Give the backbone structure.
Amino acid sequence: MRIIGGKFKGRKFYPPADNWPTRPTTDFAKEGLFNILNNRIDFQQTVMLDLFGGTGSHSYEFISRGCEDVTYVDKFGACVLFVRKTAQILDIEPFIKIYKMDVFKFIQTNQRKYDYIFAGPPYPLPTLDTIPDEVFKYKLLNSDGLFVLEHNPNHDFSAHPCFSELRNYGKTLFSFFEIKD
């Protein structure tokens, strides 16, 4: 895993991923997504939420680009420990809040709104198709915010009322959602 942009560009980390239920976003897909985000987001002003945060790759990319308000959520203890350790190594602890809990419980109990939400759930998650509905039902996204859901070609969100576009990077797809007036 490497950080592809910002002040930590090129830094590599080696998560002890044996038997982890994670599927890190490929560098190819991550570069494609961040090329889009670089033109849409003021990273320094963004309040960001990373759901199913896994190794923390998405969180580090935001902090590397100047974001100082990141919330990371994952229920897998080894991932959470890895992210805590990496935050110490990078000296970014003041910029990241780390929650070890079920993402759906977090969504239901969270009181904050976010400018950008990224969800990278495990592809075989039986409730993957409900994630956009949950994010909008519990009003996690600011009115001008952006929600990006990573998924594989087995899912189609184009009929969702808040769907705005799809980006395809091989077997990795990103569905974009925004609040529509």
Summary: The chain has five helices and seven strands.
